[in-house]
């Protein structure tokens, strides 16, 4: 099944239904298996070692929109204790890419690679990272999709990764803005 197969996808309720999004059914809710921080929603496919993470971070007004993708990618590499990180591209997204996100919100997609430890083994991992800036609620919503480069099981997942991200962005809806705690929406 591919991400374009509707039977292979499900609508997920993030943060208790405050946000909804459609993702591949094979990506399971990690919070059913282990604790996940309150500001994150994590879905993973253990067979392909692929992870899709939705994260609410504080909006940093000191970081200009045109630098936020690079900044958040580097911050993620630091948080992942990456041995190396290379940013391939940062692309601004238009209203058609995330049609249910407020007009005027800055949106970008970052493509890069990080070398992270999986157990004791360093693994090259492709990273797609979408940043949705929501300054009106003093938050940014970050969606990251990581897929190992070298495993045979991950080959199909790597091929599907851009479609998974496009689908997540295209179906993402904020249902309850109170999730973000403050500001005007």
Automatic annotation (TrEMBL):
Keyword presence, Flavoprotein: no
Domain of life: Eukaryota
Molecular function (Gene Ontology), one example: small GTPase binding
Protein keywords: Protein transport, Transport
Gene Ontology biological process terms, A to Z: protein import into nucleus
InterPro entries, A to Z: Mog1, Mog1/PsbP_a/b/a-sand
Organism: Pleodorina starrii
Source lineage: Eukaryota, Viridiplantae, Chlorophyta, core chlorophytes, Chlorophyceae
GO CC annotation, single: nucleus
Family affiliation: Belongs to the MOG1 family.
Coiled coil feature spans: none
Protein name according to UniProt: Multicopy suppressor of ts gsp1
């Amino acid at each position: 099944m591919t991400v374009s197969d509707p039977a292979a996808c499900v609508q997920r309720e993030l943060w208790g239904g405050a946000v909804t999004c459609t993702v591949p059914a094979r990506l399971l809710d990690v919070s059913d298996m282990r604790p996940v921080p309150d500001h994150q929603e994590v879905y993973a496919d253990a067979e392909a070692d692929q992870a899709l993470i939705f994260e609410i971070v504080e909006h940093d007004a000191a970081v200009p929109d045109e630098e936020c993708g690079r900044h958040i990618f580097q911050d993620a590499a630091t948080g992942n204790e990456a041995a190396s990180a290379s940013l391939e591209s940062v692309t601004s997204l238009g209203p058609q890419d995330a049609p249910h996100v407020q007009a005027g919100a800055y949106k970008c997609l970052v493509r890069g690679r990080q070398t992270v430890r999986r157990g004791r083994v360093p693994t090259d991992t492709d990273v797609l990272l979408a940043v949705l800036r929501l300054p009106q609620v003093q938050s940014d919503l970050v969606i990251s999709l990581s897929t190992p480069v070298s495993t045979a099981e991950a080959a199909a997942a790597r091929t599907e990764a851009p479609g998974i991200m496009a689908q997540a962005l295209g179906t993402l809806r904020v249902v309850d803005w109170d999730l973000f705690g403050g500001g005007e929406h």
